[in-house]
Amino acid sequence: MEGQRNPRPLPPALLLLLPVLLQAADHLPTEGRLTNSCIQARRKCQANPSCNATYHYLNSCASSISTSSPAEEPLVPEDCMEAAQQLRNSSLMSCTCHRRMKNQATCLHIYWTIHPARSLDSDLCLKFAMLCTLNDKCDRLRKAYGEACSGSRCQRHTCQRQLRAFFEKASEPHSQGLLLCPCAPTDQGCGQRRRNTIAPSCALPPEAPNCLELRQVCVSDPLCRSRLADFQTHCHPMDILGTCATEQSRCLRAYMGLIGTALTPNFVSNINASVALSCTCRGSGNLQEECERLEESFSHNPCLMEAISAKMRFHSQLFSQDWAASTFSVMERQNKNPALRPQPWVPTLFSCTLTLILLSSLW
């Protein structure tokens, strides 16, 4: 119409971020709109006799967990974990609570009842293991390699094949959470659980071979050769500060892609996050320097070290802010839809977006 001004078009950067902004806005706890609050989910559960009985059993689990000795590592009893598994398809498992909501105390009680390990264990590797257990696909894939890599049944090639299947098929939030969970230096139980994620007693050779011999085994296999080339491309350090040749996320994917191959890396101890190949450079003769370069491309790679450290800091923040469940959902949606991923060239807009997403899950 004449006299009516046409609206100005949105900037291209904002158009790209609009789906994320709208998604975040949809989850904000505005009046009269609480997405799947735990109180609503509990009412649905009460209408189902099986769900209701399981919830009551989990409620009784809380007292058995809280009586653990402070000197011992708090653990969730196996029967309580099984009860939680029975509820994983229930809306209770993804329910949320929000600050300033009505009956907030009741909502929080319901939340902690169905997530008994989250509030009591400081071991983040155990928490990520619980999240995997409560996800059908992650649990199935993890059990498959757990059985193939068990001491009594260990066949290295079968174990490695199942490990590759886990890291290829499980969602990144679950697989990276299990492998790259942060541990306090004093928490050796957590560090040992992290080292054991890839079942090293079966997946790795019992005696460390020469690294160059191990590389030769790798390059003779088309899959391992391509995974190694991927690692060398995306985890190539540009400087001593840890700048990667490409994005840190691509380096982590390339690193995890080697798990289950002849060049499977792992954490070297229970007290830090250093990684290395399970090999040695002894006996390398005049190829000693070449061997050390290969070994140090894992053990002294600033790009890889910073990528791992950054991911561990992110995982630590997930639980310190207690927004793991909703963040996993957002991360999975972003992995499936590239349009929802933040763009590196619009940091100011992304900060606002991240703040909105965080606010949606804080109580």
From TrEMBL:
Q: Which GO terms describe its molecular function?
A: transmembrane signaling receptor activity
Cellular component, GO annotation: external side of plasma membrane; receptor complex
How far does the signal peptide extend, from start to end residue?
1-24
Output this protein's name. GDNF family receptor alpha-3
Q: What does this protein do?
A: Receptor for artemin (ARTN), a growth factor that supports the survival of sensory and sympathetic peripheral neurons. ARTN-binding leads to autophosphorylation and activation of the RET receptor.
Residues in GDNF/GAS1 domain copies? 38-119, 125-202, 211-303
Q: Its topology with respect to the membrane?
A: Lipid-anchor; GPI-anchor
Q: What SMART domains does the record tag this protein with?
A: GDNF
Q: Where does the record say this protein resides?
A: Cell membrane
